[in-house]
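Hi V.,

You were right to ask for the full record rather than a summary. Here it is.
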Amino acid sequence: MADQAMKKRGALAARPGWPELCSAAEELHAAEILLQDPVAAPHTAIPHLQAFWRQATAAGAAAGLEGASGGAEAWLGHAIPGVNEGARKRLRAQLGALLGERAAAEVGPRDLRRHTKAARELLSALEPELGGQPLRRRRRRILLGVAGVFVVLAPLITYTALNTNIPGTGPWRAAYYPDRMLESEPLVVRDDTVTHAWEDRPPLEEIPPDKFSVRWDSCLVVDEAGLAIMQVNANDGARVFLDGETIIDAWDRDTATRRKGFGSASLDLEPGVHHLRVEFYESLGRQSISLVASFDGAVPKEIPRERLRYPGDEIDEQDPCAAVRAELQ
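Predicted structure:
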């Protein structure tokens, strides 16, 4: 049975556009969760909807659907099997504002919900067209703090690397473990980002494509006190810590909601250097993780590199960012 499942998964992965469609489904479901949650700010769903369109259009282009190679708007100008003309026109009418830089200001919660519903209809039509069967929706847990305004950070000085023997120049110390529980001897590298879409590939040559885990550490520099929002979206599980405190826990599947891998939190940040840690594990199948944040009330995006500092090769659990703090004084 296991061999049959693996063969079936491999056959689907080989179908043109199917891997991209799976990624689109993940992003759309993340947007749906945020829009359903009474605490999350609706505009936090926008980056997931934008990512949905990038992946869905790529899926259509890979599958050779008419117009998809010209981008989302051009694609929606053509007939799409299983999608009625009215839904297609509504999606196209909203697309320009949604994909624009001012999407958070120009697209309201009601329009976001309508667009998400129409996007779900599009996805449902594409699933049998590209894969021959519906996708399974992944359930994710959301852990949200108190909603509020977001912190406005002043520009920070250019990143300066600490002395290191680990290759690379990224601000994240990344420990890759060949097991899913962060227990065995890790391979430590420097990563430019926490966000990765490995699909079915191993993250590193020495690490297996399944049943692995990663711990990322970096130091976040904050100039002014205020509130910020962070989101993690992972396949399979993830959790985020700030100064040793868990702020997002999406590690285990919630027995009530059946959600895992997605979480969001608003947090009060004081000026200074804060230790930021992200942990991730992968069991079987496709693997990916993204970490985004909002520091100015805009749509959450990847944390700018200049706001992060490399903590050093060795992590002092008592004060992981001591060296960075000393260097900035």
